[in-house]
Amino acid sequence: xxxxxxxxxxxxxxxxxxxxxxxxxxxxxxxxxxxxxxxxxxxxxxxxxxxxxxxxxxxxxxxxxxxxxxxxx
Length: 73
What we know:
Blueprint: H1 3-24, H2 45-50, H3 58-72
């Protein structure tokens, strides 16, 4: 195993740990949206399963976070 493979494995483990931590914070019924509240595109099942109460597709979520970061300054 070379350094790149090792780095990839560590990144995947970090991501899985973060997703598990996020899931552990929430108890109760999930209210997941099938479609993005911003643009109406269907949210992939994997994203809905990974993110509790997912409301936005990846593109819209990134745009929302970018705007929030911009306005904090």
